[in-house]
Amino acid sequence: MSWVETFRAAAEAVRAHRLRSVLTMLGIVIGIASVILTVGFGQGAQNEVKDEISALGSNLLIVSPGSSTDSSGTRGGFGSATTLTLADTTAMSDRSVVPDARAVAPTVSSQTSLVNGDTNWTTSMVGTTTSWPQVRARSVAEGRFFSESEAAAGADVVVLGPDTVDELFADVPDPVGQTVTAGGRTLTVIGVLDASGASSSGSSEDDVAVMPVASALNVSGSTSTAVSTAYVEATSGATLSAAYQEIDALLLTRHAVTADDADFTISTQDSLVETANATNATLTVLLTGVAAISLLVGGVGVMNIMLVSVTERIREIGLRKALGATPRVIGRQFLVEASLLGLTGGLVGLLVGVVGSWALPALIDQPVTLSLTAAAAALATALALGVGFGVYPATRAARLTPIDALRSE
Amino acid sequence: MSESIITLEGVRKTYRSGSVEFEALRGVDAAIEQGEYVAVIGPSGSGKSTLMNILGCLDNPTAGRYLLAGEDVSSMSETQLAEVRNRRIGFVFQQFHLLASQSAWRNVELPLVYAGVPRADRRARAIAALTRVGLADRVDNRPGELSGGQQQRVAVARALVTEPALILADEPTGNLDSRSTADVLALLDELHAAGRTIVLITHEHDVAARAERNLVVRDGEIVSDEPVAGVSA
């Protein structure tokens, strides 16, 4: 009996027992689809993080107060939040000390309530310098950014993010020139930022109120010179690590500490991506593990059904043997049947996975990246499960003697 | 003078279950010639089923020789026996043993599938065999849509389709009403008249009486081998 005939007989058997075949495949379908979707979620999350981090700007170094050892967390220490000051960032801006930095943008951040008439909106207020748009790779959509003189004077001006504008000036066609009040001061809106697209965990980059450092301190009524984060743009990708060294040396000298006791942290985009990916990877491995178990359960399901099928069709096997089917032909038929169930289940699962990764992001606001490797691996697994779990039932079927099989009830 | 299709020489079959041995056949000698219509008759437990299994190459004898169409099949492997069954023997079973999900002609073509006959020839030969048993208008019906007598005729067509040396019918009328019984026996008569070699296993004497020769089996031995009265050999 040729392979074509064997395949035809197997396909007929699968079709003849439709319900049983569908139930068998269900386990495989769910397994494959969940593998594809979980891997897709993991990759989608990683890509999102990558996008967010690259949206921060290019060739960026992020200097933050407090020390952190490689990956074991942040060392608090006394007043760790005030170990980075405006004086430090001013020193970083000195080209003779840090020649490989193009621009430095210190930021002083806090949550502030902005009021426009009877509309009240709490947003993150960022006090910074005029370098901020360049360093953070942001541009102004309407109006302008604040000037050096406004920065020096601590003028009551503010540049709003597009989302903030939507909240505060829903009915105003042109918010530029309007005023908002915050911390008892009346601020003039001089510009609106372009949408950045990325939303970093928790707060949107598009919901901000950017103003000069001095203005921000006026609003919050603080006299602290502490910097929340300083963003430094290197002159190029090649000089990024030189800039890192220069800032590291500068801050160690200024703070009079050794590298082991550093009270600040400098991160690069790469190191941020790595940290984020490490977290995501753990989650992906976990989810994939769960999916793999469901796939295994699906495989055991195929084996069970094939065993039941052998028992149920014991007389058919006896008849086929009496009519001249050799043990090998019978074994082959059941093996092909199991593989067919595995493969069909795998293909349907692939389809469900693909459709799911296309449809789900719209429903749950999470990106899903379809991974070809995961899809191919899942399909190969389905086929392997079919063949693997089909072998035992097939050998059992082949070993039956025709008389016993024919006589069985 | 005719040629022997079946030669049994001192055939024994012993079943063993644990330490208990049971001798189902204790040395059977027989010869059946081309074109003969033989009934093997005996009460249940007589060993006639064992004899039928050995004649049908479904089982190997423990001792002795079995020549089928000149070939010694007594020590063949399972795979070789499968091939001999396919080429030489057409089976008709008491329970019909048709595949319920397949149409009549698909059931009849089954032995040809295992013989490696091309698909187009198979359909033509299956339909010819169904026509031969008077079911030309039922080729596409499934077993469930046919009467018991018709189902057994499909099974006979399946036994005929490979042009086997021997048609082996195991209680072919055991599950049929009297009218279908008459139908199927008439069909066997016809096939015999056309020169087929038929061995019929039964415990019913009136069925056995249709054959031209009766082998009576009791306690694992042939106790009588006689032509049926009124039939000329």
UniProtKB/TrEMBL annotation, chain A:
GO cellular component, one term: plasma membrane
Membrane association type: Multi-pass membrane protein
Pfam annotation, one family: MacB_PCD
GO terms for MF: transmembrane transporter activity
UniProt domain ABC3 transporter permease C-terminal: residue ranges: 290-402
Residues annotated as domain MacB-like periplasmic core: 21-249
Transmembrane segments: 21-41, 285-310, 338-360, 372-392
Major localization class: membrane
Keywords, in A-Z order: Cell membrane, Membrane, Transmembrane, Transmembrane helix
Cell compartments where the protein resides: Cell membrane
Family: Belongs to the ABC-4 integral membrane protein family.
The name this protein goes by in its record: ABC transporter permease
Species per Swiss-Prot/TrEMBL record: Nocardioides acrostichi
